[in-house]
Amino acid sequence: MPEYIDCHAHINFPDYDSDRSEVIERTLSQNTWMVNVGTSNKTSKEVVDLANKYSNGVYAIVGSHPTEEGFNKSEIMELAKDPKVVAIGETGLDYFRDGSLEAQRDIFESQIEIANEIGKPLMLHIRGSSGSMDAYEDTICILKEKAKVSGNAHFFAGTVDVAKKFLEIGFSISFTGVITFTKDYDEVIKYVPVESILSETDCPFVAPNPFRGKRNEPLYVKEVVSRLAEIKGLELEEVQTILVENALRLFSIDK
Ligand SMILES: [Zn+2]
């Protein structure tokens, strides 16, 4: 069993072009696993190829980000059947950037259909318009209506009330390095049971303290887990074990 799992990484991004295999190998050598997330048809193919280069510890999620164009359902469906693919996404609703909300909704629903058919969970990207929970409310409404699978709300930036609604439909919530440099999420972290939390980096973005401002990488997930334990007032080892079990369970990965 790994000590840590970074449940949302983008090691396929150009930020790692010069040292990708070194980053992956140093992560695995420290008993940390990673799940790389596709954001388009092209990057979904990349994360599947990357996962298949390693016998263990590198997994993939395939799908299309809400603000990405060129989504092709049958291609994602084919990729989704790969045994290294553990979820569908990142998909959801993003009202922060301009664009057609109807198109976003369509590709989100298509990806829910893929997840339902393949029987794999959803990795959600949700971002409200400034200061609003609108995208979260709409996402929950669509999930209640369409989703037959469970999933995880990545980079959670919602309120306690929104978190409660995700827990009610059996979804988990994940936090990034942001929680190491702001106290904005302490209240929601205290509210959500450890059994419903996943750890992630969203690397190369938002490196946690003490690496803030630098390129992020999966190994830094340790900083996120330490901070979660601190906020929860629990022993690090206990939180570490539960978070790994949560990820293995959601993604149906054998130890
Ligand atoms: Zn992401």
Q: What does it look like?
A:
This protein is α/β, with parallel strands linked by helices. It has one domain: TIM Barrel (Alpha-Beta Barrel), CATH 3.20.20. 40% of the residues lie in helices and 17% in strands. It is built from nine helices and eight strands. It has an eight-stranded parallel beta sheet with strand order 1-2-3-4-5-6-7-8. Strand 6, helix 6 and strand 7 form a beta-alpha-beta unit. The protein binds zinc ion (ZN). The site of zinc ion (ZN) has 5 residues, from loops.
- Arrangement of strands in the largest sheet: 1-2-3-4-5-6-7-8
- Count of helices? 9
Query: What's the number of domains?
Result: 1
The number of strands is 8
- The SSE string, one letter per element, is EHEHEHEHEHEHEHEHH
CATH superfamily: Metal-dependent hydrolases
Low-confidence stretches: none
What's this model, at a glance?
The chain is built from nine helices and eight strands.
